[in-house]
Amino acid sequence: MLTRMRIMNRLLLGFTLILLGALVLGLLGVRSIVHLSGLTTDIFLHPFTVSTTILDIRADVLSEQQDITRLLNNASPAQAERLQEKLLIQKRHTDDNLELVNERFLGARQEIDQIRQALAEWRTARDEVVTLTRNGRQAEASALNYGRNVPLLENLLKEVNDVSSFAISKAATFKQAAEHEKDRALELTAMMLILIMASGIAVALLITRSIRMSLKLATTEIQSLIEGSSEKIRTAEAISAGDLSQEITLSEPLQVDQEHLSKDEIGVLIGVAVKLSEVQCVLDEAFQKMTLSLRLARSKERDRDWLKSGRNELYALLREGQSTAEMADRVLIFLMDYLKGGVGALYLFDDSSIQLRLAATYALTKCSPERKLGDQFRLGEGLLGQAAREQKIICLEDVPSDYLQIGSALGAAQPKLITAIPLLHGNRLVGVIEMGTFDAFNEIELRFLDIARETIAIGLDANLSHQRMAELLDETQSQAEELRVQQEELQQSNEELEERAQLLEQQRESIRAKNLEIEAASDRLRQKAVELERVSTYKSEFLANMSHELRTPLNSLMILSGLLMQNKDGNLSGKQVEYATTINSSGKDLLNLINDILDLSKVEAGQLRFQIAEINTADLCASLRAQFAFMAEQKGLTFRVETEPSAPQLFQGDEQRVQQILKNLLANALKFTEKGQISLRAALPGDQENPLPSSALAFVVADTGIGISAAKQQLVFDAFQQADGSISRKYGGTGLGLSISLQLARKMGGDIRISSEEGQGSVFTLYLPVLAAEAPTSDKAQPGEYQPATAPRTPARPNPGIPPVTAASPDAGEQVQPGDQCILIIEDDPGFANILLGMIRERGFSPLLAGDGEAGLAMASRYSPSAIILDVMLPRIDGWNVMRLLKENPVTRHIPVHFLTCLEDRQKALSMGAIGFTTKPVSMEQLSQVLQSIEGALAKSPKKLLIVEDNSDEAKSMVALLQEGDVEITVAAKGGDAIELLTARAFDCIILDLGLADMSGFDLLEHIQQMEGARRIPVIVHSGRELSYEDERKLRRFAESIIIKGTKSPERLLNEVSLFLHLVESNLHPSKQRMIRSVIDKEAQLEGKKVLLVDDDMRNVFSLTSALAEKNMAVIEAENGKEAIARLQENPDVSIVLMDIMMPEMDGYAAIREIRKNQQFARLPIIAMTAKALKGDQEKCMAAGASDYIAKPIEVDKLLSLIRVWVYQQ
Prior knowledge:
The protein is α/β, with parallel strands linked by helices. It folds into seven domains: 13-18 and 196-241 and 248-313; 20-190, Four Helix Bundle (Hemerythrin (Met), subunit A); 320-441, Beta-Lactamase; 612-769, Histidine kinase-like ATPase, C-terminal domain (Heat Shock Protein 90), CATH 3.30.565; 810-939, Response regulator (Rossmann fold), CATH 3.40.50; 943-1080, 3-Layer(aba) Sandwich (Rossmann fold), CATH 3.40.50; 1084-1209, Rossmann fold (3-Layer(aba) Sandwich), CATH 3.40.50. Helix 10 packs antiparallel against helix 11 (574-605).
């Protein structure tokens, strides 16, 4: 009951009867109690608060340091940002706690200032670490953390610990003061009790007893708390010294019965002791967690050392020279010893029998026959075979009691775990190890097994390979010995055969004599065949050259007769005009004859070129119907054209040559048919009717004319032959048409057959393959190549009365001043040149005349004419080279050039930038049209450019590149839009992308060719897709230039557009002038390019390398085809390959074929070089895949020209 009362109340109650004594005793008691209460409050407000707060500061600092450590181990900008925010929060919390300590701390303020200083220094270092980490400077941050930040942290913790120790010491001082005050109060109370013993001994004893019990309880609890702290300090010192085996005993919080706890000041003191014990429990748990973390880290380090040690020992064991059996035995012993295995076996995999065979054992004991260890296992058989099949480790626990035991001299025991470990080298099985152990493998042991099995597999596999090589060597040596014995036996047999050979030699001599006679006869026949072929070639060359020479005088004849026919002055009689008409008509007949002779000579000389493309059967028949229907109607004949449903809609061939053949057949039918009908039928012939080896299309031309007898049917296909060749024949003609038609058909892979009876009409059938093979072409350069004439053309013979054309005609040049509007004529035919001079004067232009290419180039540079009329067949420098030099010169490249020549290479002229191409001989109307086209080209301003591009960004970039003051650019995003624009307006040039939304670029080009007004517009194909050989060959028929989008494509595009629009280069922006120069400059084209030179003759390699190095080209050398392929793989950026043909190991043909098999080098330019100059060499090189051909001895200038052409195309 008294314990629930305050001490003052007890004293008042006890000493009520003794007022004076009770009053004195009460005052003394109150004084003591107040003093004790003050001391208790001081303990709570000062040492306890300071100690608790200082622990919070320590915990916050350690937490921040742990966050920094984690940041260093796994740094990222986002994590660093979050840590920065967290540090700001903890800084405020730590500063508040430090301020509280500053208020309550009873010691010297200098210690708090030291904590503040240490904290500030540590924070500065910590912030530098965080900043370096955020900037990605991980190494510097880590170095700063361990070099500066950690020592500062330790200094900070030392200062914190000093303050904490002072607070604890202060608490002990307060406790001692309380004890002292208690004793003094007891003494005073005892003295007073002695004085008033008579009246209050019973009450005094009772009160004293109640106070003494409470004090004893408080003293006991506080003493136990102090003793527990001392034990924790000793444990912490042991752990800090490295003894991690120490266990932290968790303190139990003080257990106090709150219901029976006294409510006086001593009870409050006991409550404070209870709270201190709870704080101690929290500290014990944190310290225990830290100890466990340290133990785990030390365990992991020990495991890593164990793994590394085992791996190193295994490497050392496998490196020693030993047999396979020894290696297997030593590996198994090491593995069992290292993993504490009790029993084990190692099996090696036999590739030949696909079985596992026993190679080594460890600690096997004798056992019953039914449990005897097997010497071999198949895949999937038993635990061992299954592990080999699955190629993974298999562990078997709970081993049966009757399983193989692990025995020793003292006894035997059952293994607890059986493990099968497959040994794999890559995906190849080398062997399997099976082992039994008493204990299951832990995680680190399984990791070691996984590492060790691959290492063991590699070592065993290498040893087995070495062993197999040794066995093969022994076997080879034994076979060599057997061969030696056999050779001795064969030598004896050879001696016997030599005797028989001598007998046969006599017979061979007689046979050789007969063969010599046969060879002599064969040589005579061969010489006759060569002479016949030479005569045929001379004839063809003579006809081809004569045909060209005849065109020159014929050209003047037709033009002059045309002028006489016009009779502009009216001074000719009607008869004279009729004579001129007859002359002009005869000239046209002669021209047709020359064309036939030229075609025949081209076919026989192999100079005729074919442009293979897809042809629409129905369109072809419709075109022929339109051409011959009116002529048949005039003769009163019925003309029928039909296409059978079975006929292919499309077939491949040269449309111009197919039309030529069919026109010839139809013209003959019209000529030899007086009445009845003529028909043209396209059909698919049956297998028996088709004379071709592949699927064919038949064009059947039938008539009801005079017919041809069977004896003369073959004769009509011979040159200059007709069925009626008599002097009195009724029908005219040279007899060349059918001969040319037959040879053209056969050149395209087809044939012509005839079926006729005299007086019953004739049926001619033209068979053409549906899918044409590659037609033979001439030896001329392909489109885009600039090849000089094979020999300078001799000037035409001067006509009497016409002054010859000199290099530069003085009467023309001296009257023209630079800048005048004039036309330059480069022509070596004086008659034709004088005609052109007169017509140019009539048009109001000042004429300039040059008789050869050199003079023409000089006059073009000097006078800068408005236009140029150019012949190709010129002395010294031919027209192609004149054109090339004109377009390379910035002063003359904008001048429009029109070709007037006997040659037929329109596409080449247009691709070089010509505005037109006319084949001689020409009429006055054609010359007028030529001059009109020149006037139209000069009058056009601004020049109109059409860009067909579906990519708007690409179109905008091209507009920005090509926009000039006198160029009007129109953009079409679709093919349909382009067709509408071409129908409505006239354009001077078209830039076309092949990949359009509504149609392909090929379809648009076909459509443009069918448009009369647009078919002559220069087309530049500007595409980003890689073109196949077939695509490029097809495009060459329609487009003047092909540009593949790439790093140099803007420069090439600007160059081509300025060429076809005839823009004055000097008027362009300087940057654009530099772009054009970079494309045209020959030296710049070659500079820095890589060339692969393949030749086994080091003299050629040295000379060519020297020549190419002067052009700043990088030369890579190879001695044969194999080495060339290897060099090409090492240097895929090679620009061009120079390939010799005759080489050892792999010749040039094989090397080119191998290179072309690689899609990466499918379009790489390859120039074939050979010392042979035989007929067919070029065809062989081209068939193998070469891009071009040059014969030795090599002319360096010609080679460099070829390299420029192909590098430019790239």
